[in-house]
Give the backbone structure.
Amino acid sequence: MFEEIKTSNDGELVINVGPQHPATHGVLHLLITLNGETITKLEPNLGYIHRSIEKMCESLSYRQFIYSTSRMDYLSSHMNNHACAMIVEKGLQVEIPERAEVIRVLISELTRLASHQLWWGAMAMDLGALSPFFYSFREREVITDIMEETCGARLTMNYIVPGGLMADIHPNFVKRVKDFIIQFNSKIDEYDQLVTGNIIFQNRMKNVGYLSPEDAISYGTTGPVARGSGVSCDIRKLYPYSAYNKVKFEEILETGGDSFARYLVRIKEMKQSISIIEQLIDNIPEGDFQAKTKAVLKLPKGEFYQRVETARGELGVYLVSEGGTTPYRIKFRSPGFSNLSALNHMVKGHKIGDLVAIMGTLDLVIPDIDR
Amino acid sequence: MGNEELIVKLQELFPAASIIQGNDWPEISFESGADFLSTIDVLKSDQTLAFDYLFCETCVDWKTHFTMVYHLDSTRFRHNIVLKYKLDRETPEIDSLSFVYRTSEQHEREIFDLFGIIFKGHPNLKRILLTEDWVGYPLRKDYDDPINMIKL
């Protein structure tokens, strides 16, 4: 593409941000056109980490393809696995045990907490505050330790498989999660004291990157980005799956539409995730953790779609089966890809310094966008 | 609206289309040549349908033809449909939806990149994930990669 820095005839300057830029959190390349310090146009240049997961899945079996999905949005790998496991179960019409459903939700909410913690630390770091990063990683470490004990991995867990779970939870799981909840409950207030009320932080975030509800829907944004504009889009609430209809939680909606609203949505979502975990952790039903499935899975001919709510928004899996052991076509509708498309609209007219604040509240994970 | 009511309503509006109940949602299919933009216009502006949210747009290569698949949701009524449009394999062309749903600007670039579908009226139709000098369209079934390391 046009890599060199250049000036157009009307005095506009085109510069590259990324792909190796610390604030883009990955290999995201943005071409921005500036008039003085004001951004007039932004164009993302994607594909630096494109691995063609959709094409790969066409030659992988229904047990194998789930492993590649952990590598899309690696911060919500459980939810990605969950969507794929559910779509295979939908095709096979397998009922999975109650115990597996509850553990799936527990693990997903822990993942959401870990993802939001990482976002909170990294976003504050983008705005020049380094300490929050260490605060959030202190708590996130506890979650990754719990995951390591139960799932055997810290990032790409592959714990949820078609039919249930890979293994039962570790005997220490319940106690450690309870300890973590007690410890973390007080920490969110600490987060608020440290960052949310900070006047410099608020001045950087308020009235920056406004997205109206109509635009949020039209651009297909989901998750905290859309909910920050007051658009109700929580799949857990609207189209409940797994054990989400058994728990009580609120869908967080903010009407501000600016970066600060999106920030508040994620902070409040952490509290809701804790509440979900608290409701379920003492009520894990006894029984099997896996339903009986055949060694080689064959989905009937047809088309299946499954939506789940990841930490970044709505993940959709569209699967076309021809009756064989591999998918004929599989499409991942990733939340980051659609959220990124609104970025050009949001940064237009803002100063270049605001770009990082706006991009931080989109919570982009580049492998999820490029797939 | 429930799925049954939706099917009745859609049959009234589009007598020429074939409408079936899919696994989750009603599926409405059009043959190539049908007026696509006016269909979308009706689906979006009808007061009882109000499909304002396009949550998935993709394409399937059936070797003899392509099928464009649109998943639509209504944020007001929370009902969904699947819209399918058959495309000729020799000249795969369809109207762009980027002025109706702005999310499709990027999705259509991805489909153009991986399937080679031409979207008429798209403001910036070029490759998005692959490099600009890439030859061929990888997600087509007849695409053969000589250094494919994952083929089993």
About this structure: The domain at 53-365 of chain A is CATH 1.10.645.10 (Cytochrome-c3 Hydrogenase; chain B). Chain A has two domains: 2-45, 53-365. Chain A is about 45% helix and 15% strand. The CA atoms of residues 6 and 13 of chain A lie 6 Å apart.
